[in-house]
Design brief:
The complex is a heterodimer of chains A (about 450) and B (about 425).
Chain A: H1 15-53, E1 58-67, H2 70-73, H3 81-86, H4 89-107, H5 115-119, H6 126-136, E2 144-150, H7 153-160, H8 176-187, E3 191-195, H9 197-201, H10 216-247, H11 252-264, H12 269-283, H13 291-316, H14 319-327, H15 332-360, H16 364-368, H17 383-388, H18 394-403, H19 408-438
Antiparallel strand pairs in A: 1-2, 1-3
Helix pairs in contact in A: 1-19, 4-6, 10-13, 10-15, 12-13, 13-15, 14-15, 15-19, 18-19
Chain B: H1 2-28, H2 36-72, H3 77-106, H4 113-153, H5 156-161, E1 165-166, E2 174-175, H6 178-209, H7 212-227, H8 230-249, H9 266-291, H10 294-302, H11 307-336, H12 339-344, H13 362-371, H14 379-410
Antiparallel strand pairs in B: 1-2
Helix pairs in contact in B: 1-2, 1-3, 2-3, 2-4, 4-14, 6-9, 6-11, 7-9, 8-9, 9-11, 10-11, 11-14, 13-14
The chains are: A mainly alpha (about 450), B mainly alpha (about 425).
Chain lengths: ~450, ~425
């Protein structure tokens, strides 16, 4: 008689089975951890961006009633625009001081600050803002008008919690007395945070005025570059793909072109920047920092992406379509242009949008063709100015802000990223929708 | 300004030709060889092409021819230029009208307009395709010529085998690529150490374990990570991750070890770059793992292997060549990555093994040498082209090798 061996029973797990089951569980957990880490990185990245960048859309404003004294702004009283223009921003600055002093007296605020220190909590852009408004509407002179000035970036940081009394102990730009003064003004509702449209539409400002900096001009620059990319890369890319996919004979040259396209897609983007600098700027003498050059460089960079996706779209059109067209007497060119291309169009469009999105976020080549270090303060007025005069681009502007010493610009950089990501997400959603809407299974 | 009007006039003539050609073809009526639009396009093309060719040649050649004379006759230079433009316009218009006339003569029912027009289109398509080669040629030529220029001014021994990188804008600087290559490779290795395990395990989990529901959520989310521009990762490294690391390892940090003095370091840039590469590795390996035939899995399960044993002993060995290719492609991305290292890695060229110290890379030096104020013909600026060429050669080599490897593997199961 054979003794029942407990280790051979199917109902009792042997040590080996247990070990294997544990190993299985461990491996499963390992995979789960990996995916968890990857996704939590995404979550951390996104929370950081939103947490640090959303502040840029809010800005502290100081609302003041300023007496626009005729004696200061228009001594002759003629309201002659030429005379008014002679009064520089220095002529306007004392009015702000006076307005603040008036608030102090009227509301009974106790402070030891001199009027100069009081006025320092207002942004340096305030005088220019006042001057612009007065020049636009000279009738304001002699009246008392309400102005909504930007607060200085330190005060703004104080309202947002970036600046505290401890962190400014050795800071020359702002004192605790000024923060006390700001506290009083906040209580009185004179300093308030509100939505800052200027960040989205406005121009970049110099190092001294982070509160005044906006990304609007850079958006225009990016838009101009994307127009160049779309106008060049799409037709050239589609033409090249049609040739390679439909017409190219199978020979060494075709092979060489194909290998070339595949490799160009993987060349580091900075190499395209070097090409742009050497060829477009040094050889062809196109202007530096111009969106046209940026667009040309990005065109060369996106071309392989567009070619690859277009070829995939053309390949997906079944041969029966081609045979049918050829059968009723169309030439090969007519077949391709009249039948294959329209059927491949949604795929081509999707690929193009994704290529554009990639180009929109690209920074490295723009560094080399001089779109960095340039303070984009002027809105271009004409199309040729938009293409040829120096400008920045969204990612370049973000980089520029990240490099500046004042931490107030970091908030702008993160805010800029939010805007950039909104553009990218929109483009990707359009691409996804296009694919869903027009996708056809043969 | 006159050139614009000239071009507009040629276009107007071409459109007139289009209309005339179509009319003539339709009026000829008896069974045409091609569609009227082909005849029309033929006339249009024949009007534009010779005229624009003349214009282009004239515009390119005129400055050369005028140059000699203008040196001696600087007073008459202006009038000379004027007569030149006037003459050019007249000649271009005459060429356009003549070719229009000639093309109209050709329009007849027997003329095979479709074939001719399509040949033109094909030529245009071919030129567009050749642009890919032209770009590569442009990259290589521009970098090789500047590199040759650099090597004339600077000894090649120092560039390839020197140990110091200390550009000095008064001249006499040590410009060696070795410390930069060390930084580049070190940071890339850190990045791959982060990206490969996480990316590969994610891919395995998603393709072998995850339910289709989880897969449907996690995969697009991973792709989001791939769509984020590198400047965002750079900013994250500079402003969030670097300070975080310093808070842990800095002199006043959590561990109070003082290993890290600056927020910029190999680890800062490397780990963030690793995050960027995760989706790259995972989507490539996902494709490769999915390409392994189901029969291999079934065979392994049939022999009693657990899922993890199947993956470790059957799937991974079968997919290994492809995965190696994917890692090589990721390595080439890491080597060529610019924004993360520009913002996160620092600017000190040295040989250090401490991952918490700043190092510099080839791409950061290209950016700093070319965005500085230096004279364009100094070796300190030109060295950027030599660095760029090295980078190009390195990544190209890796790519070609990886693509070859992946393709060779893919064909195995097809």
């Amino acid at each position: 008689m054979i003794e029942p061996n407990p280790h051979k029973s199917l109902f009792v797990a042997s040590a080996q089975t247990k070990r294997r089951a544990t190993a299985e569980k461990r491996f499963h957990m390992l995979g789960l951890t990996a995916i968890f880490i990857a996704l939590s990185m995404l979550a951390i990245l996104m929370t950081t961006i939103v947490a640090k960048g959303s502040g840029a859309f809010q800005q502290s404003f100081i609302t003041l009633d300023v007496a626009l004294l005729e004696a200061k702004l228009d001594k002759k009283g003629t309201r002659n625009p030429d005379n008014l223009k002679k009064v520089t921003t220095f002529g306007y600055a004392p009015l702000i001081k006076a307005a603040l002093e008036q608030v102090v007296v009227a509301r009974g605020i106790e402070t030891d600050l001199t009027s100069k220190d009081m006025a320092a909590i207002v942004s340096k852009s305030a005088a220019a803002q006042m001057r612009d408004r007065v020049l636009n509407d000279p009738r304001l002179i002699g009246t008392t008008t309400e102005f909504k000035f930007l607060a200085n970036s330190w005060i703004d940081g104080y309202l947002k919690g970036r600046v505290t009394r401890e962190t400014i102990a050795k800071n020359k730009n702002i004192s605790t007395a000024q923060l006390d003064f700001a506290d009083r003004l906040i209580e009185l509702g004179i300093i308030e945070k509100s939505f800052n449209i200027q960040f989205i539409l406005g121009a970049d400002a110099s190092d001294q005025r982070p509160e005044d900096a906006g990304i609007g001009v850079a958006i225009i620059g990016s838009f101009a570059m994307m127009c160049v990319v779309l106008l060049l890369a799409l037709p050239i890319g589609v033409a090249a793909s049609i040739y390679l996919e439909e017409f190219a004979p199978e020979n060494r040259l075709t092979d060489f072109i194909e290998v070339n396209v595949a490799n160009l897609a993987a060349v580091p983007s900075i190499v395209f920047g070097i090409l742009g600098l050497a060829f477009f700027i040094n050889m062809m003498h196109l202007p530096q920092s111009a969106p046209l050059v940026g667009g040309l460089v990005l065109t060369l960079m996106t071309l392989p992406t567009i070619i690859i996706s277009t070829r995939a779209a053309l390949k997906a059109v079944p041969p029966s379509i081609r045979s049918a067209a050829l059968g009723v007497g169309a030439s090969k060119m007519q077949t391709t242009i009249h039948h294959v291309l329209p059927l491949a169009a949604p795929g081509i469009l999707t690929g193009t949008i994704l290529g554009l999105a990639q180009a929109l976020g690209e920074t490295a080549p723009l560094l080399l063709i001089g779109m960095i270090g340039y303070v984009a303060t002027n809105m271009p007025e004409t199309v040729s100015q938009g293409l040829l005069s120096p400008n920045s681009a969204m990612p370049a502007q973000i980089y520029e802000w990240a490099k500046r010493a004042d931490p107030a610009f970091y908030e702008r950089a993160w805010g800029g990223i939010i805007i950039l990501l909104i553009f990218l997400v929109t483009m990707n959603l359009i691409a996804v929708r296009l694919r869903r809407r027009f996708e056809r299974r043969w | 300004m006159l050139t614009h009007i000239l071009i507009l006039m040629v276009f107007a003539l071409a459109l007139l030709g289009f209309w005339l050609g179509k009319r003539k073809a339709i009026l000829a009526a008896t069974s045409l060889h091609s569609l009227p639009v082909h005849y029309a396009s033929y006339v249009l093309l024949m009007t534009i092409l010779p005229a624009s060719l003349t214009l282009a040649i004239w515009s390119l050649a005129a400055p050369w021819l005028l140059h000699d004379q203008s040196l001696t006759l600087s007073n008459t230079n202006n009038t000379l230029a004027q007569t030149d433009t006037a003459l050019k316009s007249i000649v271009v218009i005459i060429v356009a009208v003549l070719s229009l006339f000639f093309a109209m003569q050709k329009v007849s029912p027997e003329f095979r307009a479709r074939n001719v027009v399509e040949k033109f289109i094909l030529a245009a398509l071919m030129i567009c395709a050749a642009l890919a080669i032209l770009t590569t040629v442009g990259i290589v030529v521009s970098m090789v010529s500047e590199t040759a220029h650099f090597l004339k001014l600077h000894s090649w021994k120092d560039f390839f085998f020197g140990l110091d990188w200390s550009p000095n804008f008064h001249g006499d600087s040590a410009l060696s690529i070795l410390p930069l290559l060390w930084g580049t490779l070190y940071i890339s290795c850190v990045a791959l150490l982060v990206a490969v395990p996480i990316g590969l395990l994610s891919a395995i989990y998603l393709s072998e374990y995850a339910s289709s529901y989880i897969r449907g959520i996690a995969k697009p989310l991973l792709e989001v990570l791939a769509g984020i521009p590198t400047i965002v990762y750079g900013l994250f490294a500079l402003l969030t991750f670097g300070p975080f690391l310093r808070d842990l390892f800095g002199p006043e940090g959590f561990f109070a070890v003082g290993w890290m003095s600056d927020t910029r370091s190999v680890a800062t840039a490397g780990i963030v770059m690793g995050i960027m590469l995760i989706p790259f590795i995972s989507s490539l390996s996902d494709d490769i793992i999915n390409a392994v035939p189901q029969s291999l899995r079934d065979g392994s399960f049939g022999l009693g292997a657990t899922q993890s044993e199947t993956i470790k002993h059957v799937l991974l060995p079968a997919a290994l060549p492809g995965i190696v290719g994917a890692i090589l492609l990721a390595a080439s991305r890491a080597i060529g990555e610019t924004m993360i290292v520009v913002l996160g890695a620092g600017a000190i060229a040295r040989f250090t093994g401490n991952p918490l110290e700043a190092l510099t890379t080839v791409t950061t030096r290209i950016v700093s040498q070319l965005t500085g104020d230096g004279d364009f013909n100094s070796p300190e600026t030109l060295v950027a082209f030599a660095l760029g060429l090295t980078l190009f050669a390195l990544t190209l080599g890796l790519n070609i090798f990886a693509l070859y490897y992946v393709r060779k593997y893919r064909e195995q199961y097809e």
